[in-house]
């Protein structure tokens, strides 16, 4: 699907969807918990649906309900619908229905790398085989280092070349000592969520010579702390020791808003001046992408947090949008939106530290450089980022009446980032693969 986007004064108030990272972690912990967990206001997107299907495949019962709950501060999602609620009755241990079978349980992870990586480790706790697959993009994303670590901890693994899906894993895990390089933090989060549930008396020792996206690991560790799960960690996260024998208990309550998703409306306000008020975010949350609001301040925007019934943040800009230099090692998902801001900023922008953005749904560095070049905007690839020349807002329109078409490459963050250009350019643009936004932000186009 291709949509044409025209410039408009993007202002007012908007509520962003719940965090994908929190939703998937909460669902998996609920699936592995003893008792019933009620999750209020989870993300309702294609990625989250893939994880919900995994929860059922793991043997847990999952009910979906919609309604209002006075205990939840977010009674409606961004489209004004009633709040989604998941009630999950966990399957924490092997039961007769989960004993080894000849045929593996099939899990379709769709486009969700988080579901694939975290799900592989969770499935490896079981005594039967699980076979994971996904769409064409997911089949290009290697789980190789994670699979090697799972083998080292006792699992049996069979994967496509390069450690890609389709991949079959059979547990149970039984502890051990492994070393794993983590160009994506999801490998480490997968192990940290699964290892506490290894048998009592076992110990998982994990050396981590490389780690990107540290804030996501901090989020995972915060969940272990809430659960009272013991672990040891080096201050620099270069090693972890996790004893087995723990169990998870239900963690009820609402899911916080998603800073990665909020980056898109916030950037729209930065491009056209706003003001825009964003509801549903918590500045004290562990999400690393909350740094987007500091980036916007550094680029000349006004950012104001207020707390009344709930937190809100307002973004506006009266002066020029300034350039600068930003290291995105901890927050590579911000690269597409920061590239658009850099293309429009005075003085340009340098983005670095994000080589791992090349191994997401697409090579996001290469894709953003190529699409911005279609505008005539200066965008140069580096091994770990982009150098943007800026000034795209003053570019002349393309010849002819047709809008300039930019390719979304089937990547939700690329699609949403390119759509933002319409807020700065004096001519409309068309974005292909518009439906990909539903992976994390179903209400984006509305």
SSE diagram, text form:
Blueprint: E1 3-5, E2 12-15, H1 20-31, E3 36-40, H2 46-57, E4 61-66, E5 84-89, E6 105-108, H3 113-123, E7 129-133, H4 144-152, E8 156-160, E9 164-170, E10 176-182, H5 185-194, E11 203-211, H6 214-226, E12 232-233, E13 239-243, E14 253-254, H7 259-272, E15 276-279, H8 292-298, E16 302-307, E17 311-316, E18 322-327, H9 335-344, E19 346-352, H10 364-374, E20 379-382, E21 385-388, E22 404-406, H11 412-420, E23 429-431
Parallel strand pairs: 2-15, 3-14, 6-7, 10-11, 18-19, 22-23
Antiparallel strand pairs: 1-23, 3-5, 4-5, 7-9, 8-9, 11-13, 12-13, 15-17, 16-17, 19-21, 20-21
Helix pairs in contact: 1-2, 1-3, 3-5, 4-5, 5-6, 7-9, 9-10, 9-11
Structure write-up:
- The structure is a single chain.
- The chain has helices at residues 20-31, 46-57, 113-123, 144-152, 185-194, 214-226, 259-272, 292-298, 335-344, 364-374, 412-420, and strands spanning 3-5, 12-15, 36-40, 61-66, 84-89, 105-108, 129-133, 156-160, 164-170, 176-182, 203-211, 232-233, 239-243, 253-254, 276-279, 302-307, 311-316, 322-327, 346-352, 379-382, 385-388, 404-406, 429-431.
- It has a domain at 3-16 and 257-439: Alpha-beta prism (UDP-n-acetylglucosamine1-carboxyvinyl-transferase, Chain), CATH 3.65.10.10.
- The strands form 6 sheets. Strands 2-15-17-16 form a 4-stranded mixed sheet. A 4-stranded mixed sheet has the order 4-5-3-14, covered by helices on one side. A 4-stranded mixed sheet has the order 6-7-9-8.
- Helix 1 (20-31) runs parallel beside helix 2, helix 4 packs parallel to helix 5 and helix 9 (335-344) packs parallel to helix 11 (412-420).
- Residues 69-80 have low confidence and may be disordered.
- It is α/β, with parallel strands linked by helices.
